C-alpha cells in the first residue's frame, strides 16, 4: 500500500459487548484501557450500554473524558431502563453529526452514526454502524449505507463497524467493496479464537489505507470481539487538528 502525502490518521472499530467480558463481568474501566491501547484518533463502538436520559453525559464522563476524546452517541433501543446502540469517540472537533435509522421491520432496531470531523488533512466523514443478523436485513441496510456514502463524495469517507457478515465473499461485502474498494479483513470473532471477519473498515478513494490489523487487548477477557485498527493518509489541505470546539450540528 502506498502511503503518499497527507496526514496520517488512525481509526478503529470495537464491539464492546455491553461492556461485558467473556465471563459476564461488566467493567467499563477495562474497556477504557483497551481503547487507550489502540491510540486511535477515531473509534466506532457497538453494543454500547448506558443509562437513559443522561447517556451522553455518562459516555462523556465514563469513557470519552478519561481518554481525552469527544463522544457522539447513537442509541438504537431502550431495554429495561437502559439505552443501547452505537457510539463514536474522536480526538478531532466534530463539525457535523447525525444519526440514521437502519431498522428493518420485524428485526431488532439498527442504526448508524455519521460525523464530519476537522482533521489535520482537512475534513473527514465517518459512518459507524452495526448491521443486523439476517442476510436480507443486511442487504437492505447496506443499500442504505451506500446511498449515504454517495451523498457526500466531496469529503473523504470511512465506513466501519460490525457488519455481522459470516462469509468472506457474501453479497454485502462485495457490494461495499465494489463501491469503496476491497480492504483486508482480519478475523475478529470470537475474540478467544478469531475465525470470522465480522468487523470491517472501508475507505473512499483519496484515503490511502496504509495498514489494517486486529488488536489483542492486554485484558484478554474483554468482549467477544477483538478491535480492528486501520491507519490511513488523508489527501491533505491543512486544517488544524486543534482548531475549534466540538460542535454537533445537523448535516
TrEMBL record:
Q: What molecular functions are annotated in GO for this chain?
A: endonuclease activity; exonuclease activity
* SUPFAM superfamilies registered for this protein in UniProt: DNase I-like
**A single Gene Ontology CC term:** membrane
| Domain Endonuclease/exonuclease/phosphatase residue range list | 12-225
* Tagged with keyword Hydrolase: yes
Q: Which UniProt keywords apply?
A: Endonuclease, Hydrolase, Nuclease
Residue spans crossing the bilayer: none
Look up the record and give one Gene Ontology term from the biological process aspect.
Answer: GPI anchor biosynthetic process
Instruction: Give one Pfam family, short name only.
Output: Exo_endo_phos
Taking the record's annotation, the residue ranges forming a coiled coil are: none
Superkingdom of origin organism: Bacteria
Identify this protein by name.
Answer: Endonuclease/exonuclease/phosphatase
Origin species, per record, is Solidesulfovibrio carbinoliphilus subsp. oakridgensis
